[in-house]
TrEMBL record:
Main localization (coarse): membrane
Domain of life, per lineage: Eukaryota
Subcellular location: Membrane
One GO CC term, this protein: membrane
Positions annotated as Solcar repeat: 8-92, 100-191, 200-285
UniProt entry keywords in alphabetical sequence: Membrane, Repeat, Transmembrane, Transmembrane helix, Transport
Name of the protein described by the UniProt record: Mitochondrial carrier
Length: 297
């Protein structure tokens, strides 16, 4: 995610990661909603087609954008922090020759994901609940109107502690997601550049992001299913992350850990591609603007 080596190093704003993530979520929110709906269904036999048909029949096209305001706030908090911390730590660990080791990149990803998971948790709880509300019986729905209404009601009806429901799994997921998505993006991109691809070309960004999306989807899916179940539960059904994972395996089999993998990848793949293409373009525009306005020495 850097400019060509011949150019002077120019730091870009820390919030570009959050801005790129918000840009991407407009296109991929329906796929994220579909993933959540499939992950909260217990048992087997639910297909993507049946869930899509149910949403379209009961709620129409607008049903696929339930919880968009919460998703935007989540990206504005979670992704801004995780990308910002990742870039800051990565720069601190940069070697004298300007390179960053894979280990340093992975460490930066873990730290960024953990801190981002904390900041993004309140909006994430609201996001999961709003996305899944339409699948519940009418008398069990929370009927949050928007993200402000959701957070206000959560605080009033359940206390501020509800903002941190599922915090443990969310932090772990954030760590795994960022090191397997953001850090591996840089690793894959560096490898592709070594093979002769141009690091500033969109095709390089596309290939790097698709590879990182596959790794990230597979690595985070079990945690993601458990996190979604915990955040959506009204009865404190699970004692924690480990209990949720063990209960799922015991009652539904090991395959339950990969529930929603296909919609998750079809969401995370395009989302990762869009985020990194947006991010690279924002950075390129900013760097070129700075270079044009540099005063000669």
């Amino acid at each position: 995610m850097s400019a060509k080596a011949a150019k002077p190093r120019i730091e870009t704003p820390f919030y570009f990661g959050g801005l790129a993530s918000c840009s991407g979520v407009f296109f991929t929110h329906p796929l994220d909603l579909l993933k959540v709906r499939m992950q909260t269904v217990k048992g087997t036999g639910t297909s993507i087609g049946s869930v899509v048909g149910q949403i379209a029949k009961q709620q129409g096209i607008s049903g696929f954008y339930k919880g968009l305001s919460a998703a935007l706030l989540r990206q504005a908090t979670y992704s801004t922090v995780r990308f910002g911390v990742y870039e800051a730590v990565r720069e601190k660990l940069r070697r004298p020759d300007g390179t960053v080791s894979n280990a340093s990149g992975l460490l930066a990803g873990m730290l960024g994901g953990a801190i981002g998971g904390v900041f993004g948790n309140p909006a994430d709880v609201a996001n999961v609940r709003m996305q899944n509300d339409g699948s519940l019986p009418a008398d069990q729905r929370r009927n949050y109107k928007n993200i402000v209404n959701a957070l206000t009601r959560m605080a009033r009806e359940e206390g501020i502690s509800s903002f941190f429901t599922g915090l443990g799994p969310n932090v772990i997921r954030g760590m795994i997601m960022t090191l397997s998505q953001v850090a591996t993006y840089d690793i894959f991109k560096d490898k592709l550049v070594e093979l002769g691809m141009d690091g500033d070309k969109v095709i390089t960004h596309f290939c790097s992001s698709m590879l990182s999306a596959f790794v990230a989807t597979t690595a985070t899916n079990p945690i993601d299913v458990a996190k979604t179940r915990i955040m959506n539960s009204k009865t404190k059904e699970y004692k924690g992350l480990v209990d949720a994972l063990l209960t799922m395996v015991r009652k539904e089999g090991a395959s339950s850990l990969l529930k929603g993998w296909v919609p998750s990848f079809f969401r995370l793949g395009p989302h990762t591609v869009l985020v990194f293409i947006f991010l690279e373009q924002y950075k390129s525009l900013y760097i070129n603007y700075k270079l044009r306005n540099m005063q000669p020495a």
